[in-house]
Specification:
Mean pLDDT of chain A: 96
Number of helices of chain A: 11
Oligomer: homodimer
Low-confidence stretches of chain A: none
Largest interface: A-B, 54 and 53 residues
Order of helices and strands of chain A: HHHHHEHEHEHEEEHEEHEEEEH
Structural class of chain A: alpha/beta
Shape of chain A: globular
Largest sheet of chain A: 7 strands, mixed
Radius of gyration of chain A: 20 Å
Strand content of chain A: 5-15%
Chain lengths: 330, 330
């Protein structure tokens, strides 16, 4: 589903090679950390369809395809995690017939896809215990079914709370520049019949001050070993506003989002995107020509501002290196 | 100048009656607290051109016109201040020939207009002392020449600092939903040759974290007796972010922006605007049809988050009831 066309049109695109998958990830037709991991893994299968029938050449091609797909976006770690998992699966089968390896890789990506569904449901179940009945919940960007195989991460918590009979009202930040909150989260929640109010990003503080928000829940693109969390630009500011208003701030993400190689969030590479996303939304110029623009796609929220991280293995609280290692078991 | 058309087109509109002025204020063709006060005062002169030649009927018409113009927007107090000043001037001339009163009122609005220019320059001179050389300055919405007779309030401080030879770099929040920062502030600063970088509202925290901002300066639409300040939605959140990053947060506004009748900011009426400003910028739908929207045009920043208020009479610091009364001399 081409998410750049939502909510005005529901358009499905077929990708027949890895280049089409790369393009779909780069242009945010597929987005959301878990979803781009799954898409890239499918991209590997497409890329090796035409690989040579010689083992060495096959593995070289596999490597090239995975490296190429990894170059689509730099911040979300699930992308690299899924590609590594595909590469490792192939390695274990070295020496086997190439058709068997191809088949095993297709099974591997289907497993990743299926596991993601299960992970999201587990995140929902762990997270819903943190939600009180009659809560206002603020979310940013889209960490819902459109960002994962199904159900979502931050939104899984909301879906599960509603399934348990809790009454919630969601405030969705529109999330400039690409408006994933307005286009995707509002659309997805409305389709699920969950009460949702759309606000501009700069209204979050006012909504909190008015007592309408009892929890903030967001997804994540990469979490460092100490809990510092990269997520859509604007998340860091929201965490500060939540702290000021004494509102709990939760991050919901599968364990594949943790990058324990990185000791802290300052080491997470942040993608800078095209200034035209800011100056010409929908091709309409809203700013003077040639104006200088700063357009980071993500920011990093320090662990100290995060009340808890919800992953499929449980709720990490407080958030620090030790509690993360304990829950992840690595 | 129809500011809704900037920066793509520079369109001037002539207003021949008070209805056209009301419409121009309501639709934000004229905006910025001081500028709408001046426009409304001119609207009074237009409205009484066709007033009856009988004194009682003349004053009744004057009253109707002023009340009508006052209904255009509820939050900025300069509107009511300018209209009251026009009414008071007329009252002092009761008994005089009506043509003389008409002439005196036109002189009064020209005086308001001229005084505003002088006030803005005074604000600039007081404020520039707070700006260090080589500063990054973040501003929100437009508190520049386009919001006043000339020069501006928040931007006057920047213009004056630059005139004094200080090197500054401005970060302009785009200011959703109506994008006054992108359309007006970026345009105005670029035209003055001042380095400016446009950001989305939700990027302010990241820019602060990166150490690029040494001061935040904004305008104001109404300031209560204790210093609580109503300004464009998003200002309150910015003030919290500035406090978190230990960055000074300044408000620049003429003394006509103070409403000493109101003991605190909770009493300031906040305008709610059309949801379509959020859901359909430029007529392009970006959100699901029928989605619920919250669209307050302003928020109130508590005095405790404001480092200083800069008005034409001096710098009020710290900000509280006593320091405000002392500087305003009332």
């Amino acid at each position: 589903m081409d998410q750049t066309r939502l909510p005005r049109e529901v358009v499905y695109r077929e990708c027949h090679d890895e280049r089409a998958v790369w393009e779909a990830i780069k242009t945010l037709q597929v987005r959301g950390a878990p979803a781009i991991g799954i898409a890239a893994a499918y991209g590997v299968c497409l890329g090796i369809k035409s690989a040579p029938d010689d083992e060495q050449a096959f593995f070289q091609r596999l490597d090239e395809v995975a490296s190429y797909l990894a170059s689509s976006r730099p911040t979300a770690v699930n992308l690299f995690w899924a590609l590594d998992r595909m590469r490792r699966r192939a390695e274990t089968l070295r020496g086997q017939p190439l058709d068997l390896i191809r088949k095993a890789l297709l099974e591997e990506v289907r497993a990743i896809h299926e596991e993601d569904r299960a992970l999201c449901h587990a995140i929902g179940r762990w997270g819903e215990s943190l939600i009180e009945d009659r809560s206002g919940i603020l979310t940013h960007c889209n960490a819902g079914g459109l960002a994962t195989a199904e159900y979502g991460t931050a939104l899984a918590v909301i879906y599960e709370a509603v399934a348990k009979g809790k009454r919630v009202h969601v405030f969705a930040d529109e999330t400039r520049p690409l408006l994933q909150g307005a286009r995707l989260t509002a659309w997805e929640l409305k389709a699920h019949g969950i009460p949702v109010t759309l606000i501009c990003d700069n209204m979050a503080a006012e909504v909190m001050k008015e007592g309408k928000v009892q929890a903030v829940i967001v997804g994540a693109d990469r979490i460092a070993a100490n809990g510092d969390t990269a997520n859509k630009i604007g998340t860091y500011g929201l965490a500060i506003l939540a702290r000021y208003h004494r509102i709990p701030f939760y991050v919901a993400a599968p364990s594949s989002t943790f990058d324990l190689q990185l000791s802290h969030g300052g080491l997470i590479p942040i993608e800078q995107r095209d200034p035209r996303e800011v100056t010409s939304p929908f091709g309409i110029p809203i700013a003077p020509e040639g104006i200088d623009v700063y357009n980071p796609a993500f920011d990093v929220t320090p662990a100290e501002l995060i009340t808890a991280i919800i992953c499929e293995k449980g709720v990490i609280r407080p958030v620090n290196k030790e509690t993360i290692a304990a829950i992840l078991g690595r």
